[in-house]
Amino acid sequence: MMQAARQGPTGERDYCLILLAFRHGMRISELLDLHYHDLDLHEGRVNVRRLKNGFSTIHPLRFDEREAIERWSLVRAGWKAADKTDALFISRRGTALSRQQAYRIIRSAGENAGTVTHTHPHMLRHACGYELAERGTDTRLIQDYLGHRNIRHTVRYTASNAARFAGIWERNNLLEEKDQKTKNEITD
Predict the structure, then answer these.
(1) Per the UniProt entry, what are the Gene Ontology biological process annotations, in alphabetical order (predicted)?
(2) What local confidence, expressed as pLDDT, does residue 73 receive?
């Protein structure tokens, strides 16, 4: 989907938009509310201002995200009225991107990538949560990262992750270490 987004005259913008939406689990309104003053490319940070009463946080920007923002910014500078707004994502006319435009960008990238489902912006937020869970990220950390006030909204990502049980009975597991100590005490 990422490579499909890079096609066409708006490809750098579309790629950057989808990358940041996925990587930071942003709602579409949070993404479209990003401004240059929310970014610190030198330090590699983005201020994610959560909506729906969520916790706003500072997220690290990975190298590929910083590169995508820089590439998009070079293209953006040549667009009409780009200097009139601090909004990160703008239309070719220089106005802030609308929710409908962002929805079409994401849907189109999904179609061009051949996804089976009807791709929409909130899927990227869910994909972020599921990916973090698959990587074994602590549920509380996912909660904070996505800005959830209630852990119940986060648990859906970890509940379907079978990998969370991997290694539960490995030698370095605390429970097994206690069992081994008990066995050693009995045989001594």
Answers:
(1) DNA integration; DNA recombination
(2) 96
- Known catalytic membership, residue 181: no
* b/e 105-140 (16+ beta carbons within 10 angstroms → b): bbbbbbebeeeeeebebebbbebbbbebbeeebebe
Q: Which domains does the chain have, with CATH numbers?
A: 2-130 (1.10.443.10)
The active-site residue out of 6, 13, 76, 148 is 148
> Is 50 part of the annotated catalytic residue set?
no
Catalytic residue among 13, 27, 50, 76: 27
**pLDDT tier for residue 183 given thresholds of 50, 70 and 90:** low
- pTM of the full structure: 0.77
183 is catalytic: no
pLDDT digits (tens, 9 = 90+) for 94-133: 999 999 999 898 888 877 777 757 777 788 888 888 888 8
Among residues 59, 122, 126, 164, the one annotated as catalytic is 122
SS3 assignment, position 140: helix
- Judge whether 88 and 102 are in contact, CB under 8 Å: no
Residue of 52, 149, 178, 183 marked catalytic: 52
List the catalytic residue out of 6, 15, 23, 157.
Answer: 157
Question: What angle do the packed helices 11-23 and 63-77 form, to 10 degrees?
Answer: 150
Is residue 99 annotated as part of the catalytic site, yes or no? no
